[in-house]
Amino acid sequence: MRLRPYIPGCAEVGFTLIELLVAVTIGLLALGLTLSSVLYSRNAYRKDVARTRINQDLRGALDIIGSTARVAGENFNGAFPAIEVIDGVNGAPDELILRRNLLDEVLKVCVPIVAGTAADLIFAYGSESGCVYAGNTHNYEVWRAWRQARDGSVRAYVFDTSTDLGEYFDYSGEIDSNGQYAAVRASGTWANDYSNASSAAYIMEEWRFRVSDDTLQLIENGESDNPLNVAFGVTDMQVEVFMQEGGVQSTFSGSDNWTLMQSIGITLTGQELFRGEVLERQLSARFFPRNVLSN
């Protein structure tokens, strides 16, 4: 048997088992760290996308509220509740009601309305100021033309300034006979009493914003059975009214004079569930009802 001669400076090429295990371990650690970093970055990116989506939804909702807030009070004076804020109980979401008058012609109620009846709304009766037929024919014709141009039936609103009570009704025709003029109520009965000394009828628009089942909803012209969904994932809406004299009100009722306000502050809260984590964002804005300048 011949032995391989030893040559100084010459070594066996290769890895020992220990070296191989160390190399594999380091490689796995590096791969794990890389994968963890990639997954973290991917998760962070998706979370940022979700936050951005919430912000965009809130911004879009605020834009819609702002567009109506700016025109609220059009053709109304301070005695009419063009802007109302209903403060949520125990921190619940607030409600915001905005109104504008579509016709300059406002018709005085000339015969008292009794709750629970389906009586027509009489605008011309006797010789009382504002109720004389001959002095209001232009106003009657404007109302009639408005109704006829909209498939023969429109929503109108009656309001009593002495009680701050009002309601919508479907106006589907007129009774014009012997110096009397009335708007025909299409269906239903009156919810409230209305005095002939302090009540009038309007053709107007109303927007009521509320939060229901984590959705910002819009109710138009009293149609509470058919709300429009403005934005999903909205969990809260808080409203503040900033007054010209410096005060801030969390509620604003029909007895408050909206022409004395400076701006309306809205804060919306939105949430989205992301991988078991609740992401929450808030967005605030203030809007100026420009018709304040007209009063």
Give your account of this protein's structure.
The protein is an alpha+beta fold and 295 residues long. It folds into two domains: 49-98 and 206-294, no CATH class; 103-202. It has two helices and 15 strands. The protein has helices spanning 17-71, 137-148, and strands at residues 83-86, 95-101, 107-108, 121-124, 154-160, 165-177, 180-185, 199-202, 204-212, 215-220, 228-232, 234-243, 248-249, 261-274, 277-287. The strands form three sheets. It has a six-stranded antiparallel sheet with strand order 3-8-5-6-7-4. A five-stranded antiparallel sheet has the order 1-2-9-10-11, with helices on one face. A four-stranded antiparallel sheet has the order 13-12-14-15, covered by helices on one side. The longest helix has 55 residues, at 17-71. It is elongated. The mean pLDDT is 90.
Which helices and strands occur, and which strands form pairs?
Layout: H1 17-71, E1 83-86, E2 95-101, E3 107-108, E4 121-124, H2 137-148, E5 154-160, E6 165-177, E7 180-185, E8 199-202, E9 204-212, E10 215-220, E11 228-232, E12 234-243, E13 248-249, E14 261-274, E15 277-287
The shape is: elongated
β-strand percent reads: 35-45%
Largest beta-sheet details: 6 strands, antiparallel
Number of strands: 15
H/E element sequence: HEEEEHEEEEEEEEEEE
List keywords for this structure.
alpha+beta; 2 domains; 6-stranded antiparallel β-sheet; 15 strands
Summarize this entry quickly.
The chain has two helices and 15 strands. The protein is of the alpha+beta class and 295 residues long.
